[in-house]
Backbone:
């Protein structure tokens, strides 16, 4: 098999998924292009901000496209390229894109409510509290894993103390992105632009930031970058959407789309052979295909975090319901293409059926950097640009998850009123956005001390379990509102079985370390064990509560 064939299959299948299956969903559920969306009804200049179609798409795509589409397929390729490709195609179209679009759809139809608040409306207050607690714990895992990834990527020093120019330059560009995004947001607030001038200015700013960052690299160690990343997450969590996140995601989207385009062009021009075996076996290095494949590949197939973005931030900025398919379903299809490009990259870089050594980021950056160097770009600059793109994937996820984690914590303590004067002292404190952000980031930092590799398996299982719970909740929403929802039944059942199995395996591994193998550290292993047990307990409670609601046979429906 060659790379061009795999890419062609992916492009055709994803296009069919979007134009046939996606449009079929909008047809049977209904889209009202004339009704005012929550962005207009509750416009507050902070969370609810009416935005253009591409601006919302840029935020959704930049937020959901974390490190997953690069790391997942490359790690899972140990099972062979066929299982990876099959899961990307089936999972992307019938699981992930459906979940992302339905979560966005349900939220827009319900005043831009987050998944937790949707569960309160359609399932009950108990289900809401359990889901919000689950979601908050889940955001801590995302913060821990991705903050460690970004800090490691920005580390300007090698293991031997030598300067690492590509990493330092990528870090410099990323910091420029934050500053320029704020200035760009202020400019657009005072001088709204049409899409074409806005696009042109955005591209010019990107070119300028790339040149300045490469010329002036920032050499800081991993620990320093970790503190800087958490400071950035605090800013992103409390500042208005239009001031930081939206302009930064808008600018980042061009970088990410450019990276995907570079990979696609490289595959088209080189048509590399896939040197990996089609199928290795049902168990590799002691890891079973089921459930490891399905939790290793999240972004690109299905990821629970996407639903939190769809219902937490994107739904509050949609200006017209007709934009929902492009934002929700379309962004997932492009992410699936990136995952396929990652699979082709590792397949082409393999030698004699053996994957190259190095982290998934290193493998991806080196291979796509080679593609860029074919067009006259020097190898160091090409490596720097791709390193920046890869780090942008994780950093744009972090700014969203910090905000979503803060909102989940606040909503946990909101009862029947949002009026601060009618709340208790504890409620006022916990619903304060600054306090909620500090608490969320503090516990995320504690988990981060365990390192990316220790947190990732638990994050992967929790991520997919979140997807299963969201799909169950969305099935209830569709039933209660009189819409067809049976297409969600198979995805929700498959993901629930997969992820409960994976979490039980994680708990077994940590307990085995505590009792038999030694090396158990409470601050890291102990906290992970507590989180894993809490997640699986909450998941079983939420699922049982939601399934009873789904199959209660009452047949009662409400509008919207």
Residues:
């Amino acid at each position: 098999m060659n790379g061009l064939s795999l890419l062609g299959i992916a492009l055709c299948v994803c296009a069919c998924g979007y134009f046939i299956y996606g449009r079929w969903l909008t047809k049977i559920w209904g889209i009202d292009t004339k009704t005012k969306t929550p962005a207009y009804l509750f416009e507050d200049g902070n969370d609810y901000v009416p935005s253009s179609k591409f601006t919302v798409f840029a935020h959704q795509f930049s937020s959901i496209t974390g490190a997953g589409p690069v790391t997942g397929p490359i790690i899972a390729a140990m099972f062979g390229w066929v299982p990876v490709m099959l899961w990307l195609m089936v999972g992307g179209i019938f699981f992930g894109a459906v979940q992302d679009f339905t979560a966005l759809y349900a939220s827009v139809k319900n005043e831009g409510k987050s998944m937790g608040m949707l569960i309160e409306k359609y399932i009950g207050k108990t289900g809401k509290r359990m889901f919000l607690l689950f979601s908050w714990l889940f955001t801590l895992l995302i913060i821990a894993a991705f903050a460690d990834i970004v800090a490691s990527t920005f580390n300007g020093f090698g293991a031997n103390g030598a300067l690492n120019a590509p990493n330092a330059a990528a870090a410099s560009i990323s910091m420029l992105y934050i500053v320029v995004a704020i200035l760009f947001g202020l400019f657009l607030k005072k001088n709204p632009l049409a899409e074409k001038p806005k696009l042109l200015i955005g591209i010019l700013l990107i070119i300028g930031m790339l040149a300045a960052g490469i010329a002036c690299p920032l050499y800081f160690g991993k620990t320093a970058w970790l503190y800087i990343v958490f400071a950035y997450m605090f800013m992103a969590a409390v500042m208005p959407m239009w001031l930081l996140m939206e302009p930064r995601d808008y600018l980042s989207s061009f970088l990410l789309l450019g990276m995907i385009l570079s990979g696609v062009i490289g595959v088209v021009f080189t048509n590399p052979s896939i040197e990996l075996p089609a199928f290795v076996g049902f168990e590799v290095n002691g890891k079973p295909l089921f459930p490891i494949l399905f939790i290793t590949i999240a972004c690109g197939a299905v990821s629970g975090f996407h639903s939190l973005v769809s219902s937490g931030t994107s739904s509050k900025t949609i200006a017209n319901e007709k934009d929902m398919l492009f934002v929700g379903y379309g962004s997932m299809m492009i992410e699936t293409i990136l995952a396929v490009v990652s699979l082709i990259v590792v397949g082409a870089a393999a030698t004699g059926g053996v994957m190259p050594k190095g982290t998934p980021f290193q493998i991806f950056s080196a291979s796509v950097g080679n593609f860029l160097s074919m067009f006259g770009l020097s190898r160091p600059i090409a490596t720097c640009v791709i390193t920046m793109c890869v780090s942008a994937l994780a950093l744009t996820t972090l700014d969203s998850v910090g905000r979503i984690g803060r909102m989940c914590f606040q909503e946990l303590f909101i009862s029947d009123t949002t009026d601060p004067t009618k709340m208790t002292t504890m409620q006022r404190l916990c619903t304060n956005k600054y306090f909620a952000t500090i608490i969320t980031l503090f516990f995320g930092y504690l988990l981060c001390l365990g390192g990316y590799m220790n947190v990732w398996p638990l994050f992967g299982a929790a991520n997919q379990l979140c997807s299963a719970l969201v799909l169950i909740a969305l099935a209830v929403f569709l039933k209660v509102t009189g819409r067809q929802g049976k297409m969600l039944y198979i995805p929700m059942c498959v993901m629930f079985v997969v992820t409960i199995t994976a979490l039980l395996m994680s708990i077994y591994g940590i307990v085995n370390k505590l009792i038999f193998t030694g090396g158990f550290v409470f601050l890291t292993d102990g906290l992970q064990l507590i989180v894993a047990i809490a997640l699986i307990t909450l998941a079983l409670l939420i699922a049982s509560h939601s399934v009873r609601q789904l199959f209660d046979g009452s047949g009662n429906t409400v509008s919207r």
Q: What stands out?
A: The first strand starts at residue 283 and ends at 284. The CA atoms of residues 291 and 501 lie 7 Å apart. The chain has a mean pLDDT of 87.
